Amino acid sequence: MKYQKPKGTADILPPFSKEWQFVEQNARETFALYNYEEIRTPIFEKFEVFSRSAGDTSDIVTKEMYDFDDKGGRHIALRPEGTAGVVRAFVENKLYGPEHQKPVKVYYMGPMFRYERPQSGRLREFHQIGVEAFGSDSPKIDVETIMMGMDFLKKLKVSGLKLVINTLGDKESRDRYRQALIDYLEPHFEELSDDSKARLHKNPLRVLDSKDKNDQKIVENAPEILDFLTEDAQKHFTSVKEELDTLGVDYVVDSSMVRGLDYYNHTIFEIMIADSPLGKGDVTICAGGRYNGLVEELGGPEVSGVGFGLGVERLLLLLNAETQTTLQSKQLDFYVVGIGDLVQNDVLKVVHELRQMNFVTEQDYLDRKPKAQFKSADKLNAKYVVTIGESEMNDRVFKLKDMHSGEERTVALSEINTLKDLLK
Ligand code: HAM
């Protein structure tokens, strides 16, 4: 094959594209119930938008970014995630201004790019559905965000979900914890992987997230963030847990969970699924948390934020068989069969009028014999077949067959409008 798609990308073909539309439509409906509105931001941004936000020691920035200098010499990157661009837009368009109702709640969906090793549910061009809420420090909004992610997945009948939460505390908690981690890890310095050696002093929390087996063994006994929380941070986390309890949501606290992006503090969470088509063990489909300070980092005022991102490709692998079959099955309202060259104008008009009445209508485009046209109507699962031959044309009528009951009747061309209630 001469041309192939780049490694780690996918073509989304019909009828599978219907599953995408279904998921996107459900997301829009769910988020609207929580009063979120859509935001669309560029697919590429200045490199610094991501390096300042995701953190310059994160894998995403150091290893996975699709970045390049454009013809004007600007350092550009394809977005590896949605939050940074949304925060940049929030600041640039002053959405923090008094005319905007707080919290400002937005959602987005679209392609993201990370240079990763492709595998099932992991691509280089992948798609996220994400939400962000700005301007509230209340634990309520952390919980609302989590609930919205859970609601959405439940609406799509994804089963076996596991909610895992943790807190990274506020800046003071983090500073204390950082020092404790460095003190713990320093004696192990020589045993650490090269990545972790480089990160130990710059960002020791990254070491906790290392994929290296030996690093993982070392951090098993590392101190836990929960022992270093300030009173405020503790209070915030307790409220989040209490509210989840009030809503009857099951969750697990994993005090060793850190996220792959550096902008988080306070609540972080992941919605995972165990031993699914995504793979053995827990795989995360939806992840997010609070990021107070990020708006300031990108040049805005002190406004807090919280949100999540959900991997669409992963979600699609989890749709149940029934949903998939329903979405992929074809159904046409009308197929219009024309017999002979002379009737083509009538066919043209009937097809046009049926579409004007909002019926999904098909016809033959290949000058095929009636038998082949009837076969197509069958294949496309048409509910009704209209037939126009020369005698029908002369009588200014057409034949209408109900494919379900087998009933056939004759309808005057001038009365085609009476069909408009047919499928109600
Ligand atoms: P993230 O954890 O990097 O967070 O990504 C969120 C989700 O995107 C993952 O749980 C996964 O389902 C999906 N995902 C990530 N990388 C890939 C990939 N290479 N292929 C397929 N799916 C992938 C964020 O991106 C944050 N912006 C989430 C957020 C929003 N936090 C606050 N607001």
From TrEMBL:
GO cellular-component term (any): cytoplasm
Compartments, record wording: Cytoplasm
E.C. designation(s): 6.1.1.21
One example GO MF annotation: transferase activity
InterPro entries xrefs: aa-tRNA-synth_II, aa-tRNA-synth_II/BPL/LPL, Anticodon-bd, Anticodon-bd_dom_sf, His-tRNA-ligase, HisRS-like_core, HisRS/HisZ, HisRS_anticodon
Residue numbers binding L-histidine: 81-83, 114, 128, 132, 259, 263-264
Keyword Phosphoprotein in annotation: no
Domain of life assignment: Bacteria
Keyword Ribosomal protein: no
EC supergroup of this enzyme: ligase
Entry-linked Pfam families: HGTP_anticodon (PF03129), tRNA-synt_His (PF13393)
GO biological process: histidyl-tRNA aminoacylation
Catalyzed reactions: tRNA(His) + L-histidine + ATP = L-histidyl-tRNA(His) + AMP + diphosphate + H(+)
Major site of localization recorded for this protein: cytoplasm
Ranges where the Aminoacyl-transfer RNA synthetases class-II family profile domain occurs: 20-370
Alphabetical keyword list: Aminoacyl-tRNA synthetase, ATP-binding, Cytoplasm, Ligase, Nucleotide-binding, Protein biosynthesis
Family: Belongs to the class-II aminoacyl-tRNA synthetase family.
PANTHER family with a match to the protein in the record: HISTIDINE--TRNA LIGASE, MITOCHONDRIAL-RELATED, HISTIDYL-TRNA SYNTHETASE
Subunit structure: Homodimer.
The protein's name in its UniProt record: Histidine--tRNA ligase
Taxonomic source organism: Pediococcus pentosaceus CGMCC 7049
Chain's gene name: hisS
